[in-house]
Records
---
Amino acid sequence: MPRLVVATPLDSEDWIDHSALDAQGPPHRLPPMTPKKLTEQSRTLMNVAVELAASMQVEAILVLFDAPTEWEELSRLAKGQKVIAAADRVEQVAGAEEAGIPVVLLEMAESPVHEKLGQALLEAVADDFLASGASVVALYSGFDADVPDSLSVIHLDEHLGRLTSRDLRQLETRVPLDTLKTVVDLAVDIGREGREGKPVGTLMVVGDARKVMASSHPTGFDPMKGYSRKERNLRDSRVREGIKEIAQMDGAFVIAGDGTVEAAARYIDAPATNITLSKGLGSRHWAAAAITRATNAVAVAVSESNGTVRIFNNGEVFLRIEPMRRAMKWKGFDFDRPDED
């Protein structure tokens, strides 16, 4: 897990249903945002970030801003250090690329800052802005939403383990990284914790949901049936906790690319032709391999015997995650907000 080095306060879209927008026609571009001038506090923090980057030999400084700023001045303050800008919308980083600063777009307006930082790192590696084993200084608003006030040093070898930019791009062609990150985190939790002290195995098939549904059938009662899409989306922590309970049932979860759980307790019908797996892997893993060979989905299987998480892509084990190897868990760092008066 990345380590929080500094988080010190100084001076002090809602999620969009893109399918609904598509039905109404192309969305209107938001009006340009007024660039914010770099405050003395921002300049001071940037200077500290540069010193940290130099002393710890980090690869880049990641800035997470909610509005465009004086990007040329920010680049000058970096003194040759690589700067990457992350934001929820393109309007918030207007002018950054013209100043030679690469941009990562998140579309996670309602997510906590640690989740935004985690996603920004994944996207930066996938886009070859960062190496998977790099260290990064992050500058962001941890306490005051409008003012950058916090610095962290994040070590990606603890955060992404053996994943490379090629790995992430290959997965991203099938499933959005933010959805896959959420599913993998959930699977690792299930593999490590089980339920009520008992080990639990499960299978989650992510992406290409229509084909996956056509290549599977219900085993019986589907506990997800009857709920709205919003009530079935893994972005909601209550849904994730519910999945941990339902994981004890037989069958697979089918999850759409936007994180909506389309169905639970599904029996996979895809043939396991020309598939070879290691000895000791059971029917759950064969089903994961078969469905990813037959569709463009990615499957995440949790072994009931030892909690190991395996990610399947195109009929093969793409990545194995041991339940106690925190370096492989895609999870952001945590910090406590100060008590509000």
---
Amino acid sequence: MRRSLVITDSRVWNAETEYALSVARAEAEIGVTVEVAAAPGSPAAVRIADPIGLVELPGPAPSRSPADFLANVRTISEAVGRLAVDVVHSSSSTAHLVAALAAGSRARVVHLRGSAAEPSGRALNRYLYRRMTDAVVVSSSRVEDWVVERLGVRPDRVRRILAPVPDVFFKVGEGDDALRAELGLGAGVPIVLNVARLAPVKGHDVLLEAMRGVLEEVPDAVLMLVGEPWSGQPAALEARARELGMERSVVFAGRREDVPRLLAASTVCVSSSIGSEENSRAVGEYMASGRPVVATRVGVIPELVIDGLTGVLVPPSDPEAMARGIRTVLTDRAIARRMGVEGKRVAEERFSLSAFRRGLLSVIEGVEGDR
């Protein structure tokens, strides 16, 4: 039986950590015995569930403390031997070096690049990627280009696997009148849904400006912003909505655990991000749910959304273009329906859990074949 160890030393929950745990879960589902190495009490550690095991990393700050770094190397080295690990995955720059030093020749090292941070091109980092790493799994073509061009890794040793979407989103139905009633919205009110933390990089201010243009043609439309508070929000966005005279057309729903229900009630889903988005979980969930998408051309989004077929792509920070895209979907139900159907088909083919598992199995078999 294959055995893998996934190292994620981050103490915050971010796209990189989420991608690493997606790898751990997917490998467990295809029959790999998986352990995750994480700091006690970290977001990754508390999300681990059977059959995945936990290896606790003793060093709380390995990127800043040499003592913590060496403690983690010792812990991982011991775990590789004790668990007879075949493959070690790493999900941050520090974890990558820890994995390479600890594994040595005993296990294959497969680095996971699920973040938007551009890698360092220093000689040591190039050596780490080219000489001490067996394969690199990336979540977007931009990261793939960085690894190949900036670090000089052979293209055949880099594999792009789009972040997966949980199966529940492929089962979203049509409409949710109970939710609409709960939110005080009528059955025929068009809902423009945006799911993202309320951080500046997500472009909510641009989306508010765009919504003003949408309301000129579709006056009964409602913008629903779903996401946890961030950087003084939602207060500033609420104030901006009032300034624009559209406070009755914007619902600040806060953080919700019933996103599939919100998707079922939505008419069009929007991503207004102005940067990052190397995974863009929300856009994947929109498409898997069969909803038409209007999204900015940032990060991995152009790899997910096929402009004109599964949604509309617009430049970032361009409220007029975004308003046109949203109006197109809201006023032409045939286009909206076609985009939703095609989006779901593409999602099933490219970023369903089954597609993710197939991609990982191919990587594992590939590095095993290099022995």
